[in-house]
Design a protein that fits this description.
alpha/beta; eleven-stranded mixed beta sheet; globular
């Protein structure tokens, strides 16, 4: 039952094959058995069982709320959850319990979803491996699959615990691992530069980034306000479409949401691809791209072509500037957003009381890790009066050029862009940490950052397994 899709288990609930409480208990049991993955920061067992009991009462009365009623879900720990600790995997917010739910969380609960817990991440969602949070790194469930252990000649978990497990990608690695390990049927992530699609690729599931403004950001603790989007992680595209249907829509608490988004278009609605024109950006064929990903990318294009789609090469000429542009804009907004964590209103506060300035400095030194402090420092540098025009303003202009590249391509008749999601498959933890956070993020988000700067939707779908065998992180299809 736990290996079924969301829609399949929803049908099972309606048919009485299993009750919401039984389903919840099965998921809770598996969460405990897979605790070594470190996918969850908080397990909301009592809350989940209570919600499941309420769902069961509705089913018995024939008053189901919809496809999500009684469905176990997980939420990344940077979304506010009323009465449940929200930490952003940081010492700064340990012990912080929000008095309200994020809009996306509330919409899930309003449809009867059962909240299993809050998932692990990189501290304040700053990372691409889910390895830099205060609660420790998240381990990829595929590290412990029989096929992978046999290929790598590793001993099963528990016999020889080592650090050669695979990363999940990030920063929504906990949510991706939770779905991949069958502990829930859908999970919320956040996507600022690929943080939903990247871990979805490494964990072999679907990761969907909606258009900016389609889904409310209210209650999502901000990283980069102009790029942050709540993301959806599921096991198939149809499930992502089901969740999106619940989440999408105007929110008076978020002025950036679209007043009338219309009916969301998803890949699941496509039954005939013969009328599609698919673009292959030539700038994405970078030297760092692994030969295996390159081969699978070509196979995916050939598959579409064999079904009648038109596949053409296109150009996004300003792609090479996207990483630098993203870094300037991201760190600048981070510096602004992190200013609220000063030890006065909520979150961590140091014991130093010599002066207000000393308290500020010590609180932020103790509360933030090196990655967060580094981005704050860089952002404040770019925002200095003498640097503002040369860095921030120029980066905004380049961002417009990058967005216009997509507009020009789609106006030329291209419907979809087909690209890889990451440069390679998931790598072992010990190999991943050889690089610093900034370098890793720049490399891992090379194919995903530009979409966030343009505000476009993107979905990562699984193509096939690599030789290891691991999920092959093809493809990040950008829709317009």
């Amino acid at each position: 039952m736990l290996g079924r899709t969301l829609q399949e288990v929803s049908a099972a609930l309606k048919q009485g094959q299993i009750t919401p409480v039984e389903l919840c208990q099965k998921c809770l049991s598996l969460i405990k058995k897979t605790k070594f993955l470190n996918a969850y920061i908080t397990i909301s067992e009592e809350v989940a069982l209570k919600q499941a009991e309420e769902s069961e009462k509705r089913y018995k009365k024939g008053h189901s709320l919809g496809a999500l009623d009684g469905i176990p879900v997980a939420v990344k720990d940077n979304f506010s959850t009323s009465g449940i600790e929200t930490t952003c995997a940081s010492n700064m917010l340990k012990g912080y319990v929000p008095p309200y739910n994020a809009t996306v969380v509330q919409r899930l609960l309003d449809q009867g979803a059962v909240l299993m817990g809050k998932t692990n991440l990189d501290e304040f969602a700053m990372g691409s491996g889910s390895t830099d949070g205060v609660f420790g790194p998240v381990k990829n469930p595929w590290s412990y699959s029989k096929q992978y252990r046999e290929k790598r000649k590793q001993k099963p978990h528990g016999e020889n615990e080592d650090s050669n497990w695979l990363i999940t990608g990030g920063s929504s690695g906990g949510s991706a691992a939770a779905v991949s390990a069958f502990t829930c049927f859908a999970a919320l992530g956040s996507d600022t530069g690929g943080s939903t699609r990247n871990p979805a690729a490494h964990c072999g599931i679907v990761g969907f980034k909606p258009s900016y403004g389609l889904v409310s950001r209210h209650g999502l603790i901000p990283l980069v306000n102009s790029m942050d989007v709540p993301g959806i992680l599921t096991r198939c595209v149809d499930d992502a479409a089901t969740v999106l249907g619940v989440l999408a829509g105007h929110d008076p608490k978020d002025s950036t949401t679209i007043q009338d988004p219309g009916k969301p278009f998803m890949l699941s609605s496509l039954t005939d691809v013969s009328k599609l024109c698919i673009g292959i950006p030539k700038e994405y064929l970078v030297p760092e791209l692994s030969s295996e990903v390159r081969s699978f990318w070509s196979k995916a294009a050939n598959l579409f072509e064999s079904e009648g789609a038109k596949v053409i090469e296109v150009s996004l000429p300003h792609t090479s500037y996207s990483i630098v542009c993203y870094h300037v804009l991201c760190t600048s907004e981070v510096a602004s957003n992190m200013a609220r964590f000063d030890g006065l209103e909520y979150g961590h506060r140091c014991d130093i009381d010599v002066s207000t300035e000393a308290m500020y400095a010590a609180t932020r030194r103790e509360g933030f890790n090196d990655v967060v402090r580094g981005r704050i420092l860089a952002g404040n540098f770019f925002l200095l009066k003498e640097n503002y025009a040369n860095y921030f303003i120029k980066a905004q202009k380049v961002r417009r050029l990058i967005a216009n590249d997509f507009v020009n391509v789609f106006n030329s008749g291209v419907d979809v862009l087909l690209t890889p999601t990451t440069l390679s498959e998931a790598v072992p933890y010990l190999e991943f940490i050889k690089e610093d956070n900034r370098t890793r993020s720049a490399q891992d988000d090379i194919f995903t950052q530009a979409v966030n700067m343009a505000g476009l939707p993107a979905v990562k779908i699984l193509l096939l397994l690599s030789q290891n065998p691991m999920p092959r992180n093809q493809n990040n299809s950008t829709l317009y």
